[in-house]
């Protein structure tokens, strides 16, 4: 009996020890280590660097140049009866940071270059039109200041005076060019100057404003 009692007592002690060990390893019973490092929180997004006043002024200057370049292209497009160019990009909000203003300035500089290239191309096409006759010179006439309402009159006079040939010369009077302008109007500038069709049309528009159709006996 004593042996049996000892065995029961030993089993009871082992059971209590096992239960205590299991209870101590449970998540609820785990002790908090005060020296443990806290879990790092997600870092906040960095504050953008504010744009300096000098950068903003430089960007606005680039935008003004782009607006002027677009205006010249828009005028050339109207002369050629083309669609109008795209608008200049908007300015960033005043609260935008440095990176946004740098990107905006670069975009406006690219737009200005694109507008200038297109204007130069259209100007070249106007100065060197294809085909024959007077009407091919009408876009360049518009570009030099002639009013749209004068198209029929302009084409009639150019066809009558030079058949649309910019280097036509009247041997008896010395009149030259598309509108057969008399030498008294251009002699001081020289033959090289009057040989340029654009100069002929600018001078013709000036003569028309001064003397009207009477300058061509009309």
Would you kindly provide a written description of the structure presented here, covering whatever features stand out?
The protein is mainly alpha-helical and 218 residues long. The protein has two domains: 53-127, no CATH class; 135-212, Lysozyme. It is built from eight helices and no strands. It has helices spanning 2-24, 53-79, 98-127, 138-143, 151-162, 183-186, 191-194, 197-211. α2 (53-79) runs parallel beside α3. The longest helix is centred in the middle third of the chain and has 30 residues, at 98-127. The N and C termini lie far apart (150 Å). The model is unreliable at 18-22 and 24-32 (pLDDT under 50).
Short description:
The chain has helices spanning 2-24, 53-79, 98-127, 138-143, 151-162, 183-186, 191-194, 197-211. The protein is an all-alpha fold and 218 residues long.
Topology, element by element:
Blueprint lengths: L1 H23 L28 H27 L18 H30 L10 H6 L7 H12 L20 H4 L4 H4 L2 H15 L7
Helix pairs in contact: 2-3
Low-confidence stretches: 18-22, 24-32
In total, the number of strands is 0
Largest sheet: none
Enter the CATH topology name of the largest domain. Answer: Lysozyme
- What percent of residues are in strands? under 5%
Q: Please indicate the count of domains.
A: 2
SS element count, helices = 8
Mean pLDDT value: 84
Helix fraction bin: 55-70%
**What is the CA–CA distance across the termini?**
150 Å
State Rg. 43 Å
The secondary structure category is: mainly alpha
The rough form would be described as elongated
Order of helices and strands: HHHHHHHH
Which CATH C-level class of the largest domain is it? Mainly Alpha
CATH architecture heading of the largest domain: Orthogonal Bundle
